[in-house]
Amino acid sequence: MKVLAYFRSLASKFFHRSQIADEMEEELRSHIEHRADDLQRAGMNRADAERQARIEFGGQERFKEECHEALGGNFIESFINDARYALRMLRKSPGFTLTAVVTLALAIGANAVVFAVLNALILRPLNVPQPESLWAIERKASFVDPSQSYPDYLDIRERNRSFEDLAGYTADEAGLDTGQNPSAAWIAMATGNYFDVLRLQPYLGRFFHASDEHGPNSAPYIVLSYAYWHSHFQDDRGVVGRVVQLNKHPYTILGVGPPGFHGTLLFFDIGLFVPIVNQEQIQGTNELNARDSRWVFMVMGHLKPGVTPTQAVADLNSIGSYLEKTYPKEDGKMEFLLARPSLYGDYLGRPLKAFMTALMVLAGLILLAACANLGSLFAARAADRSREVALRLALGSTRRRILRQLFTEAVLISLLGGAVGLWGSVVLLRGMSVWRPVPRFPMQLEVNPDAKVYVVAVLLTLASGFLFGAVPVKQVLQTNPYEVVKAGSAAATGRRITARDVLLVLQITICGVLVTSSFVAVRGLARAMRSNLGFEPQNAMVLDTQLSMAGYRGDKVPVMQKRMIDALAAIPGVQSVGLVDNPPLHESWNPSNVFTDQTTDLRPANAASEAIQCNISPGYFQAAGTALLAGRDLTWHDDKRSPRVAVINQEFARRIFGSVAHALGGYFKLPDGTRIQVVGVVQDGKYTSVAEIPHPAMFLPILQAPSSQTFLIVRSQRDPQQLAAAMKSAVRKLDPGLPFYIQTWNKKLDSILFGPRAAAFSLGVLGVMGAMLSITGIFGMAAYSVSKRMKELGIRIALGARREEVLRTALGRAFQLLAFGSAAGLLLGILAGRVLASMYRESAGNPLVLGGALLTMLLIGLVATWIPAHRALSIDPLILLREE
Amino acid sequence: MADQAQLLPGTLDLLILKAVSLGPLHGYGVLLRIGQISGRALLIEQGALYPALFRLVRQGLLKASWGTSENNRRAKFYELTLAGRKRLLEEVEGWNRLAAAIGSALATRPEEV
Question: Distance (Å, rounded) from C-alpha A506 to C-alpha A376?
Answer without folding.
Answer: 12
